[in-house]
Amino acid sequence: MSSPHDIRRTIDAVWRIESARVVATVARLVHDVGVAEELAQDALISALEQWPGEGIPRNAGAWLTAAAKNRAIDWLRRGTLIERKHEELARELEGESTMPAPDDTAALEDDIGDDLLRLIFTACHPVLTPDARSALTLKLLGGLSTDEIARAYLTPEPTIAQRIVRAKRSLTDAKVPFEVPRASELPERLSSVLEVLYLIFNEGYSATAGDDWVRPALCEEALRVGRILAGLMSGESEVHGLVALMEIQASRAKARVKADGEPVLLLEQNRALWDQLLIRRGLAALQRAETLGGSLGPYALQAAIAACHARARTAEDTDWTRIAALYEALAQITPSPIVELNRAVAVSMAFGPAEALRIVDELMQEPVLRQYHLLPSVRGDLLFKLQRFTEAREAFERAASLTRNERERKLLLARAAACAH
């Protein structure tokens, strides 16, 4: 019999994977994402109370969804919704098909009947600020904690928590419908949707906290929804650019972690383990982005950078000069300290660590990077290459003290120890 601790870990894992689907399904029924999240949380509490004694259900996700739907019935009964809506919900729970009433026909005009996509576009409604859209969608779609979202944005956690609370209140007050926007409304919401998908993918690709270096389920979810979005907006270069970027990065998943969970850095990875199918898909998506014409946007440029790595048979074959030029182009359209930090890495590989160190030293004065562990990590690497080992060790130790990921912390401390000459 499983211990209470093991069951709790299983419940946490199931919730991480299934919460977005549960919230999205219930939101379609109650048309309020704030209420839907509360009902989903109630279902989670029931699981925490019942599963330790009764055991984990065979289909835990379906159990959580059914429990949340049952709570939705109670909520609808207490509310002021018309009796017809309650009857439709009851029939859905019984597995019966329900024909829409005439005033429901607009829902059939949606191009995609995907609850998760509806949830993204609802959370990204223009009534919210861009920051609130991204934070709320990460919370609802990615199942991320406010702490993880805060670290992704390099923003204090109380600020993120406040954004999420205000965002849900604003959606309720504005009576925002739970639907995929019509074609004429899609472009204005696209940029925030792409940003959200990329942040969800990145949280899965390099977890900000915990014992695991990666969370594959988050990457898979971002890719799944990204592919759907690419089908919905096939004429948008940046949609294909983001999908290309995620496909190529996801192709490295098996090579990024050793059997014991220890992370493997890009230049040390066994490229034979890279998923060639995902690489081909990514390169094809990048080609679609390029053939649509016009200047490449930030996601397509990042995909082009990833493609340079994907096309190189060995680390030594990488075209670092082109990568540095692509980062320069990226910095022109989306200037940020993090882009500059990535450009510094490329400059180091293309032109030497001394030139790159000058860029990084300037970034040390950036307030937004003060608690960003990759800044001292990159600086430590450059100092190591310049044989300034004492300074390199201090930089790696500083980076280790800032990261919240245990695997990454051990890696950084190992690099610090390697500086002892």
From TrEMBL:
Signal peptide: none annotated. InterPro entries: DUF6596, RNA_pol_sigma-70_dom, RNA_pol_sigma70_r2, RNA_pol_sigma70_r4_t2, RNA_pol_sigma_r2, RNA_pol_sigma_r3/r4-like, WH-like_DNA-bd_sf. Residues 21-78 form the RNA polymerase sigma-70 region domain. Transmembrane segments: none annotated. It holds the Pfam family Sigma70_r2. One of its GO terms (molecular function) is DNA binding. One of its GO terms (biological process) is DNA-templated transcription initiation. Residues 189-289 form the DUF6596 domain. Residues 120-171 form the RNA polymerase sigma factor 70 region 4 type domain. This is RNA polymerase, sigma-24 subunit, ecf subfamily. It comes from Hydrocarboniphaga effusa AP103.
